[in-house]
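User: Structure with iron/sulfur cluster, tokens only please.
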Amino acid sequence: MNKYTDSNYQQVIQDQNQEILYKFSENKNLENLEVTKFIEKTSTIDLLKISNSIRNKNNPGIITYSRKVFINLINLCKDSCSYCTYKKEPTDINSVMLKPSQVLSIAEAGKKLRCTEALIVTGERPELKYREAKEWLNKLNYKTLVELIADISESILQKTGLLPHTNAGSLTKKEMSMLKSTNVSLGMMLENSSESLLNVGGPHEKAPSKNPKVRIKSLISAGELKIPVTTGLLIGIGESLFDVIDSLLLINELNEKYGHIQEVIIQNFAPKDGTGMENYIPPTNDYFLKCIAIARILLKNINLQVPPNLSPKIYAGYIDAGINDWGGISPLTPDYVNPEYPWPTIKDITKVTKMKGFTLRARLPIYPQFINNCVKYGNFVPNSLKKFIEDLIDNSGLVKEEYAK
Ligand code: SF4
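Assistant:
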């Protein structure tokens, strides 16, 4: 029986769509072309009604966020994406190569503000391109960036109790295994599964690490290692709706196999001065809302995040599209990837979430579903992390309310 026929989208969907809705509900033989046609002929309002109702069924009443510090460990990068302002050259006054003691100071300051996540971000393998990055590592007695991240993560965990979550690009299986005992989860955007974005003039022409084959390999490795992963899509960089759907179906397929995709970020491209795409037209709100809605419809109960800071005036509307998370928000550090777009305050986001009829709760950088043993996929939390996680959560697996206040 079609699980969705008893919900409110019966009111909005015509009979001829029942077959595809059945396939959505059962995740059965979904063909991209069929999904694309369905999306194209369904109005955004109707799509939002469907996506909203799926979120309300799987995640009723609560929208989450992660209270974090953003540790910008090294912002040199061997690649060049044409929308990026994060990457810096060593000669740039804003280039950063932190010392472990500086990292620890940030984490300690975050602890005082009751942050629970230490987000460690780096460019893609900077030591392969820049002598300065290699020298920085050697001076600290490390050969590779991942060795340094592993030690820094251990030190953050032991000295502050903040939970590390690293986003260092497309890591190998061996590198991920070095982070598993200290990182509760890892982050790596797929961006999109379409190789056309690597073409000459495309946003990833000079970013071989954004080759979807490379990214998919990393996602598979994380699955094999049972590491919860946050991934996501960047919307409006030259992809088609078909590509978006293809990417979501791929993420779903990986998650079906390994059960490790804890969250998918749907991020809108925002043109930035000084980049190759500064004059590129950003996605329309209608297209972006459709992308969020289709993500919710296809990904079912995978947590769905849209960063609020990239759309400061309209982010409340993303709740209507079916999201259940606002991502990491820091009371201390800026969003170094999008410094042009400051995060709203936690007070503001609490207000907006409440206005939409939801309660804002702080979560850890590992979602509740991954904390306890999963019947189908097994255990995602190594013993080394259990105590640190349990210290921070209540029975719901979210951050204790008295701690998050
Ligand atoms: S988006 Fe990431 S991979 Fe691309 S240039 Fe920026 S830091 Fe490097």
